[in-house]
From TrEMBL, chain A:
SMART domains: Skp1. InterPro entries: ELC1, SKP1-like, SKP1/BTB/POZ_sf, Skp1_comp_POZ. It comes from Panicum hallii var. hallii. GO terms for cellular component: nucleus. Its main location: nucleus. This is Elongin-C. The keyword Nucleus applies. It comes from the Eukaryota. Pathway: Protein modification; protein ubiquitination.
TrEMBL record, chain B:
It comes from the Eukaryota. SUPFAM superfamilies: Ubiquitin-like. Pfam families: ubiquitin. Residues 1-77 form the Ubiquitin-like domain. This is Ubiquitin-like domain-containing protein.
Length: 117, 94
């Protein structure tokens, strides 16, 4: 039985809370545009949720930044809008359409598939 | 609701209520960009109206998903020109 001594001290105290939904994350598009959104909005995406909550954490998410070299700025912005729309919509009461321009549908679906959202 | 605050290549999604004042939005931005409200100028895109601190967002026609440009105060105390980069100018050329 080796290495059963003391667990290594957590490197980042902020990572301790598993469901820490405070704060913001920065999503960076292929063209280097930055979108700063609330963590709880980012959590709409299961992929991002896993990145943000996995123990140990991804190096990107520890710095609060996630790069998407394959997602263009227009699509990433639309996705962020969807996150907020989803937050609002899932809270009940009113419903509203989420508008999607036909020309971006395919790209948006591919990104949504990747982000599991 | 939320609004999108844009400057250069950055977009900040800010959750807010129509009854909130523009100052309240600036205070939220303060925690993100390290610039006090007095150094921020918010301009509603479309009408180019400069938002007034004491008025509510609803009063100034700022609605859900509105885009607001952010200008910061320069060294000479004036506000910088509004600039929002367009992704078309940065298409990856690989």
């Amino acid at each position: 039985m080796v290495g059963k001594g003391e667990a290594p001290a957590p490197r980042d105290p902020e990572e301790e809370e598993e469901e820490d939904t405070g704060g913001v994350v920065k999503l960076i598009s292929a063209e280097g545009f930055e979108f700063v959104i609330d963590k709880k909005a980012a959590m709409v995406s299961n992929t991002l949720r896993n990145m943000l909550t996995s123990p140990g954490g991804f190096s990107e998410t520890r710095q609060g930044e996630v790069r998407f070299p394959e997602i263009s700025t227009h699509i990433l912005e639309k996705i962020c809008q969807y996150f907020y729309w989803s937050l609002h919509y899932s809270s009940g009461q009113e419903t509203a359409e989420f508008p999607i321009e036909p020309e971006i549908t395919l790209d948006l679906m591919m990104a949504a598939n990747y982000l599991d959202t | 609701m939320y609004i999108r605050v844009k400057r250069n290549k950055s977009t900040y999604f800010i959750q807010c209520e129509p009854t909130e004042t523009a100052l309240s939005v600036k205070q939220k931005l303060h925690s993100l960009i390290d610039q006090p409200p007095s150094n921020q100028q918010l301009v509603l895109l479309g009408t180019n109206d400069v938002l007034e601190d004491s008025k509510t967002l609803a009063d100034q026609k700022v609605e859900n998903d509105s885009v607001v440009a952010l200008a910061l105060r320069k060294d000479d105390n004036a506000f910088e020109e509004i600039f929002i980069a367009r992704p078309e100018d940065f298409m990856s050329s690989s």
